[in-house]
Amino acid sequence: MTELHLWLRHEARTTERRTPVVPDDARRLIEAGVRLTVEDSPQRIHPIEEYEAAGARVVAAGSWVSAPQDAVVLGLKELPDEPKQLTHRHIFFGHAYKQQPGAADLLRRFAAGGGALLDLEYLADDHGRRLAAFGYWAGYLGAALAVLQHRGRLTAPLRPTGKDELDETLRPAPGDEEFTALVVGALGRSGRGARAAFTTAGADPTCWDLAETRDLDRAALLAHDVVVNCVLATTPVPPFVREEDLDDPARRLRTLSDVTCDVGSPLNVLPVYDRTTEWTDPVRRLRKEPPLDLIAIDNLPSLLPRESSADFSAALTPHLLDFGVGGPWGRCLDRFREAGRELGLTEGEFGHA
């Protein structure tokens, strides 16, 4: 590995408490020769003192904008709106390659500055399997919130917690009625997490994956009380739930949790809502009669920031230790350049960082 200067940035989103690198793995990186700069961040689950003790250089939040040009800026969620020119290589979940809202603007910012996006969603092995993901915890929390809402026990605003505390609220209590549940995309990371949460809640969900969604029985889907969607489509597929299904008088479905949150994308399999829900207001009622509640939070794992960060960091760190121009990182860069060409940007102005 050539010498890497990694710059761990503060997350601009106030509800984002996760980190892609925990202090123990920061120490591993530093001991392997990585230069690690960490921005102070009062909301990060691990205090800055733990990174400093691991040997990282500490700087002010947001100072990545003036970082040395060779620094690779590492984060998780969206960048602030400024600066308009992005000059560095950035590692984060960009959500920029499927025509999502704001995607073109983000890519143009990279074009303007000559930087590059190495999107963590596309950090994959030779077979296309993602190498570092929060999917399990996203699915766990998507199902957990759906259960709590269905049982009338979900309170707002949401707050970060630990798994033991969450599980205590999930376990069935005297008087809880049984309900039917469906996990769509049950065999993936998110689906496994959702199934585990339902098990903790005392429910035995129906599990659908490729075979069932390829020939979708929409009436069977609508016959469940709770549905958790864990499918992230990469090619166009018929929607799982349509607007007209919401007005079906035979609909039993009462709580819909969309872990994927692909809202605004033409590949969205649940095109029945136009914006995500928030920690302050996690549930939106899509229909009054019969009632249908939607949960669509796009940073679910941040509700379990310690557990989800530890798992993600353990998966990502080996690939940071092997950071380079080829392999998975090279494929990330290739996908970024392909997105630039799709947008009409030329190689000469795109992705030189």
Polypeptide structure, described:
The protein is α/β, with parallel strands linked by helices. It is built from 11 helices and 12 strands. The strands form 2 sheets. A 6-stranded parallel beta sheet has the order 3-2-1-4-5-6, with helices on both faces. It has a 6-stranded mixed beta sheet with strand order 8-7-9-10-12-11. β9, α9 and β10 form a beta-alpha-beta unit. The longest helix is centred in the last third of the chain and has 17 residues. The radius of gyration is 21 Å and the shape is globular.
Shape: globular
Written as H for each helix and E for each strand, in order along the chain, the element string is EHEHEEEHEHHEHEHHEHEEEHH
Distance between the termini: 18 Å
Can you count the helices? 11
By DSSP, the count of extended strands is 12
Helix-strand makeup class: alpha/beta
Q: Largest sheet, if any?
A: 6 strands, parallel
Oligomer: single chain
Describe the structure concisely.
The protein has 353 residues and is an alpha/beta fold. Helix content is 31%, strand content 13%. Strands 3-2-1-4-5-6 form a six-stranded parallel β-sheet, sandwiched between helices. The chain has a six-stranded mixed β-sheet with strand order 8-7-9-10-12-11.
